[in-house]
Amino acid sequence: MSCPREKPETPRQPKCTRCRHHGLVVPQKGHAKKCPFSRCCCWKCRLITERTRINAMQRQLERGPGEAEARGIPKASEPPEAPSRTVTRAPPADSRDPDPPREPDPPQSQSK
C-alpha cells in the first residue's frame, strides 16, 4: 500500500563502498578506475574485498558448473593458462650439503 503523500520511487543510485567508508559519497557508476581507495589496505577495505570475493564465489556456485563455461568465463579455481617455460638453475656452489649421503657399509663377515 502506498500513501499518496509519499515520494515517488526513484531508481537506485549505488555509491562506492570504499569511498563511503572513508567519508566520501561518490556515485559508483564509472568510478571503479578512478577510485582513490582502490588499493587501500585498511581493515574496512579488506573487509569489502573479502565480502566481494565471497559473493563472487557464491554466484559461481549458484550458476552451476556448465553455465560459466557456456558464457566463456574461466573457473575461479583454475588460473589462466600461461606459456610453459621452465628454467632450471644449478644451486650456488656454497649451498652444497656439508654432509653428502654416504653409501651403506658392506656387511661384515663374522668369523668364529
Structural write-up:
The mean pLDDT is 76. The relative contact order is 0.07. By secondary structure, this protein is mainly α. It has a domain at 17-75. It contains 3 helices and no strands. One of its GO terms (molecular function) is DNA-binding transcription factor activity, RNA polymerase II-specific. Residues 16-63 bind DNA.
Helix/strand order, N-terminal first:
HHH
Which structural class do you get from the secondary structure elements? mainly alpha
Unreliable spans:
none
Task: Look at the structure and give the mean pLDDT.
Answer: 76
Determine the fraction of residues in helical runs and give it as a percent range.
25-40%
Mind describing the biggest β-sheet? none
Please state the overall shape, judged from the principal axes of the Cα atoms. elongated
Beta-strand percentage?
Answer: under 5%
Radius of gyration: 30 Å
Number of β-strand runs: 0
Total helical segments: 3
What separation lies between the terminal Cα atoms? 109 Å
Family: Belongs to the DMRT family.
Pfam families: DM
GO cellular component, one term: nucleus
GO molecular function: DNA-binding transcription factor activity, RNA polymerase II-specific; metal ion binding; RNA polymerase II cis-regulatory region sequence-specific DNA binding
Architecture blueprint of SSEs:
Layout: H1 17-21, H2 43-63, H3 65-70
Region (Disordered): 58-112
Keywords: DNA-binding, Metal-binding, Nucleus, Zinc
Main location: nucleus
